[in-house]
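Q&A log
Question type: sequence-to-structure
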Amino acid sequence: MEKGKETFPYINRELSWVDFNARVLEEAFEKENPLMERFRFLGISASNLDEFFMVRVAGVKAQVNSNYNGADTSGMTPAQLFPLLKEKIHIFMDRQYSCLHRSIMPALKKQNIRFLIPDEMNREQKNYIKRYFHKVLFPVLTPLAVDTSRPFPLLANKSLNIAVRLKDEDEEACFAVVQVPSILSRFLEIPTQPDEGKAFVLLENVIISQIAELFELHEIKACTPFRLTRNSDLDIDEEAEDLLSEIVKSIKKRKRGRPVRLELLQKSDKETKAFLTDMLKIKEDEIYEVPGPIDLTLFSKFANLPEFSDLCFQPVVPVYPPADFVGYHNIFDAIREKDRMIHHPYESFKCVVDFVRAAAEDKDVLAIKQTLYRVSGNSPIVAALIKAAENGKQVTVLVELKARFDEENNIIWAKKLEEAGCHVIYGLAGLKTHCKILLVVRREEDGIRRYLHMGTGNYNDSTAKIYTDVSMFTCKEPYGIDASSLFNVLTGYSRPPEYHKFVVAPHGMRLFFTQMIELEIENAKKGLPSGIIAKVNSLVDPKIIALLYKASQANVPIQLIVRGICCLTPGIPGISENITVHSIVGQLLEHSRIFRFENAGNPKIFMGSADWMQRNLDRRVELVFPIEEPDLKQRSFEMLDIMLSDNINARILQNDTNYVHIDRRGKAPLDSQQVFAKMAKEEASQLEHNEDWSTGFHPLQNPELIDD
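Response status: OK
Response body:
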């Protein structure tokens, strides 16, 4: 990266992403992880790679095809990047299958669990899959012939299919396609003797074993499983009069996106491969031949089978209610007394749901305003907002329709909210609304009071069980004024205001972070205490990275916790030797964004929705807010300290761009996620003995019964 005449180290974001996914895959190799969790990490790495192909690889490929020659911040053109990216992906996929066949499958066999192909089955098992084929599969399957009168079918993105090469009575070659039905489980348990453990067969192998019954007039010459990945990045005309219908049209186009990857089994039939290459207009460098099975995402579902629960992590059971809310008759009383903080999933997201439900039922609540980016399929938050509207509250919801791969789900919820009488805003033209904020306006004895929830994560009760995030509740007037101003900007034509507490993108956040980093540089030069700790999902923005290098050169100590993409290189003498980068990949997905600035010995700490990426700082509506309550500040500092002490889930980025595990010699093992879970339980347990648990806002005695 160039700035003036100087060159700054900058790692290409696509290559850095592959390194991140490699860290996910490393967890599948980790023998200390429970076996089904290793399967799950393997499946997650495959799912991540699918999305990467659909968006990022597709984007690079489109630039290459259009002869775009501009260099990115790392100095590479798309034509230079693509071969490096392809090579790195091939190496990664080789490691995926090495992990499966050399590490996980032998461990599975030791547990007396096997995946069989028909040739390995006894007569009883073969008869079983034959009966399953006739009773279940045969009525569902639709063989699609391809000839002069029947064109090659439009195949769904990521669907698994079987290409069949046939010969008819005249010895003429012909082809057909059979889709493996995604509505059915990809794996089928087959009968075994009591001492043989469990055995499974993949659905495509069942189909192939009986496929002759679909083509009785033809001779089967070859069966070739394959899978297609399509360009799925939406091209939305945000100036369209009806954004909702425009996105619906774009979603339909996604299903017909240009193929960007064809997965085949190694040593597939050459004639079939040539046929698919021709029909799909796919290029040789877009073909990925694998040992099989195709589509490793199936193992995430396999790991979820209830009979394998003893081979999984002990689940993190959220504490409810969180310690900050114990002993209060209602949630408004607790927030009115002081700011409250919840650390998810160690403390239950149900507290946030309770907040919305309480507002929906409270006769004194006049209005509710909320942003929704990603919500669950059966969202209690949305149900509570609908109930609030039915109860006569003024409910305004900004539903971001452009949340990638959640567009359809968000459209469904937006329509239901509208039907219930809520005012629904479909985001802003040219900007994604990514901030997480909920405002409740309540009439009280001393006047109108605004209660506020802000967070680092989505209002999604499902992901809140596996993503680490932080929530803050407050009713302090400066925050409330800022919240009203922000919603006025989102829903009307208000000019972005001067906020009292909020830091909001795209109009003020970049300047804020620039000023905070520059202040640390000035403090260091004056000999005052200085330092920066930042926890983000991704660090990509070139200007922020240049500032961090500048701060390092001014002897500002900088500790970064970056789960995913990191384009900064730490530890380079004279440039970044005062910067360390940790990446935490563990049982839970690290999602919170936290920023601490030493501020000459009076540390300030902020949390919010924004990563240090151009899109977050310049092209999204994001919110970062300060933590000011002394006990909550101290708790936030401790969170960062514990994460920086993690030597189980953490890896350190080296100045050669490789990530290495922390050397634990002489150190007690510390898993930050387990520490946080233990702390939440211990604090709740202490309060259980000290507080009156008969109040209205109390915990369920059995945490397994929590409706979370």
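Response note: Residues 78-110 form the longest helix (33 residues).
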